Amino acid sequence: MLAALGIAAHIWFLSRFYYDLQLDLLEKSGMLVAAGAVLLALWWAWSRGAREAASDG
């Protein structure tokens, strides 16, 4: 129950933060693209590290 409340609060905070930014839509979309690229790079590095750890095994 507490985890669900925390997730809901996090989603609410991020949406309020996004809509309260005093930026135009192009700058906001650039921020979202950059965040997606960072998350994709982190996922790639993590999956590569997991594969290497499994092969060292």
What attributes characterize this protein structure?
mainly alpha; 0% strand
In words, what does this structure look like?
It is a single chain. The chain has 57 residues and is an all-alpha fold. 89% of the residues lie in helices and 0% in strands. It has helices at 2-20, 25-56.
Order of helices and strands: HH
- Proportion of residues in extended strands: under 5%
Overall geometric form: flat
The gyration radius over C-alpha positions equals: 17 Å
**Cα end-to-end separation:** 38 Å
Q: How many helices in DSSP terms?
A: 2
Q: Summarize model confidence as the mean pLDDT.
A: 90
Approximate helicity band: over 70%
Number of strands: 0
SSE arrangement:
Blueprint: H1 2-20, H2 25-56
Question: What's a quick, concise take on this entry?
Answer:
The chain has 57 residues and is mostly helical. It has helices at 2-20, 25-56. It has a domain at 24-57.
